[in-house]
UniProtKB/TrEMBL annotation:
Highest classification ranks of the organism: Bacteria, Pseudomonadati, Pseudomonadota, Gammaproteobacteria, Alteromonadales
Domain (Thioredoxin): residue spans on this chain: 34-165
GO MF assignments: oxidoreductase activity
Name recorded for this polypeptide: Putative lipoprotein
UniProtKB keywords: Lipoprotein, Signal
Leader sequence segment: 1-17
Organism: Pseudoalteromonas tunicata D2
Pfam families to which the protein is assigned, alphabetical: Redoxin
């Protein structure tokens, strides 16, 4: 029984690093394709509400959160963001990008977690694949000019503590 509990705890810890259909032996190494100081390339999104999001038009800092609704680490990170001053910061634009998520799932998630920022569907990982190959939630901090300040894989208990710039 003790061995089963240890195994379940280990599997839960690493669950968000892969998609639900990958087998453990198929799990890729974590790779991040952008680094501090790089220009963030994906500047245009369309939210699930149909609103256009152009990061160049927002003269403020940005937090881009790549996540999945089924991922416990993503759920925890979203709760932490909403409980923090970040959610009410008028000098910060937060955009959530649902990796392999459709609009209906994201809308339900947005309501359940009372998210006050736009969500974007990335059903085919076209946005996510520009920044990494594995690991969610993945938080990317951008400055006013859309340069990367920091990237964080939020598979840690207090992700919000690392969102300082």
């Amino acid at each position: 029984m003790k061995s089963i509990l240890v195994l379940l705890a280990s599997l839960t810890l690493f669950a968000c690093s892969q998609t639900p259909n990958l087998q453990p032996e198929d799990k890729p190494n974590y790779e991040t394709y952008i680094a501090e100081g790089d220009s963030f390339k994906q500047l245009n999104f369309t939210s699930i509400a149909g609103d256009k999001i152009n990061l160049n038009e927002l003269p403020k800092r940005k937090l881009i959160v790549y996540f999945a609704t089924w991922c416990h680490d993503s759920q925890r990170a979203m709760r932490q963001i909403m409980a923090s001053p970040l959610a009410a910061d008028n000098n910060l634009q937060i955009v959530g990008v649902g990796r392999e998520e459709n609009a209906a799932n994201l809308e339900k998630f947005q309501q359940e977690y009372q998210l006050n920022f736009p969500l974007v569907s990335d059903i085919d990982r076209s946005y996510y694949n520009q920044v990494a190959n594995a690991g969610i939630p993945r938080l990317i901090l951008l400055d006013n000019n859309n340069n990367v300040v920091k990237t964080i894989i939020g598979e840690i208990p207090n992700t919000i503590d690392y969102l300082v710039w």
